[in-house]
DNA sequence: CTACAATATGTAAACGTTTACATCACCATT
DNA sequence: AATGGTGATGTAAACGTTTACATATTGTAG
């Protein structure tokens, strides 16, 4: 292992003290232009790279940002991580990405891990922002942080995400407006994440506002979607009228639902409509495209970095921001094909603004 | 920012020297059982976490593994990263994951970055293992590393991956065996990654062995697949017989190709067969499933960690390993529906072993 | 009873930075 | 000419560990 070149080597090579070299590197204080050049040349020549370890030790800043996401393989968080990494790189920061696997204990241990690395700040998506030991720990440690995707009701240091409640409510009225009266929802990780909860609550509220009842609620394991196949085939094997539309709390679930329905001989969207949530690439790579609430995942990542930076440097009071989502048209959401139930008939109302979202906490 | 508790605090709290505490924590040397208990209790009580920075500085080991992957959002690498992180966690290591965005310069700078962090070793997928500045730098620095997905011809410290050449060749004979005679290939990042090159070379070799010629080669940008739509519509708008099967060098490309073909009114696999490469989840979440060469991505990650550990500790001579892939049956690969060209008729031969793969380097 | 190994702990230096403080030269103001 | 400000650099301490070496305490064999 070739000995790494240190600041001392540079100092020696230039006939300067390490202090001066350090000042040049961080361009702090007043240095002669010629000295700067000399040092920079030496840095180039010897291939010097400051040791992050030593930097962190002096507890100034090691230009490292901790990141905790629930899953590396879920495209939503992968995209968020990509956006964040890009922005961090632009600003000269390195992200240290950890996955919590949707597990509270791992979430907490990830925070401890990041604390041990003395990161300058943390970007994270927690399972449930209303009751997160990880978040409390960060508050306690006084480390700046910014939540991604979580949009908590209580006050937090910072957050960037979309209004899941409102978006889900909008989906509900949109579905109803197309004549559907028997509507189901497929939700994953229901008790585990605040997003799923908000989406469920929003969807219910939207349906209620539109005067429709939720016909079915299918809950499945978020990771491997166990139980989906069974639940769906049970529902569709029963007599009577089946749901003509399903809202799925995320796109992965929506794609699994479509695959299952098609395997059961139902055509999407001719027989049954599907709406997802997230707008992942895999949804766009099919024909017809998966109708979905498209969330700006890359931007959630990069905006979170910006907000965190503001916190770190300006100690700004800006506490968070809701980003716009986009409910796409067409795709796997179509007008109902069967005759609607006789008792339906109220006109959809677009005034979603009147919806109250501050109640439905489970 | 609450002052972090250090090893000194523990020492003071226990009436011991820092040396003893350090020894307890790393359980090195001989310590009285009662002392161990006392220290561990204090660690628990005060919530002590050793500073990674200080550890790294003493240049022992900071139990950190550097990771470089071409993309966070490509499911293949996301899965690999997930597998690797899981295994690393098991062994008490923390992965520091960086994305190179398929860019050689970023690849190199990522290596420099990891070197600055004094990681114990590096796990990485490079664009092209035969000419990688990043790899040379690692060799020069003497840092243990293990390639993931790259299966280089020259000697390297370590690698874990599948035999892309052989797998692609197998795909070729499989397609031909189903009666296809007009076969195309869609390849991304062709000049950029050794995987795409090996798959192309293997496919060509396989076709040649089966006595078929490649009818079309469509090359597209790996990231956004620009040019795919244009190329395909040009090919299918021409007079004459069109390809009845396409091999795509990865699943993302395969899904995009299917979407495009279906948008052009072709049915998959009734009119045209598609075979991908990687076996990503999105391919399995459609009906019919995307036929693909399934690579053990999670295992590539975890096996790489194991191999790297062997390198770090045992200075083992084990230099690399090829993992099994699996070419799935059915799905989007079906027997040809049109009449095959009159001049075809040779029987496929399963003796792929005779294929020589040591020639086709671009 | 002495001596020597083994066990258990303490002391202090080192790792590569950053930074408060000191120094020195130079020039401008009184 | 003395004073003081400013610009450029050096000195040395500190950050939280690990670890070679020293020391102290035992048990045990001669």
UniProtKB/TrEMBL annotation, chains A, B:
<dbReference type="InterPro" id="IPR010982">
    <property type="entry name" value="Lambda_DNA-bd_dom_sf"/>
</dbReference>
<dbReference type="Pfam" id="PF00532">
    <property type="entry name" value="Peripla_BP_1"/>
</dbReference>
<keyword id="KW-0238">DNA-binding</keyword>
<dbReference type="Pfam" id="PF00356">
    <property type="entry name" value="LacI"/>
</dbReference>
<dbReference type="GO" id="GO:0003700">
    <property type="term" value="F:DNA-binding transcription factor activity"/>
</dbReference>
<dbReference type="InterPro" id="IPR028082">
    <property type="entry name" value="Peripla_BP_I"/>
</dbReference>
<protein>
    <submittedName>
        <fullName>Transcriptional regulator, LacI family</fullName>
    </submittedName>
</protein>
<feature type="region of interest" description="Disordered">
    <location>
        <begin position="336"/>
        <end position="362"/>
    </location>
</feature>
<dbReference type="InterPro" id="IPR001761">
    <property type="entry name" value="Peripla_BP/Lac1_sug-bd_dom"/>
</dbReference>
<keyword id="KW-0804">Transcription</keyword>
<dbReference type="GO" id="GO:0000976">
    <property type="term" value="F:transcription cis-regulatory region binding"/>
</dbReference>
<dbReference type="InterPro" id="IPR000843">
    <property type="entry name" value="HTH_LacI"/>
</dbReference>
<feature type="domain" description="HTH lacI-type">
    <location>
        <begin position="5"/>
        <end position="59"/>
    </location>
</feature>
<keyword id="KW-0805">Transcription regulation</keyword>
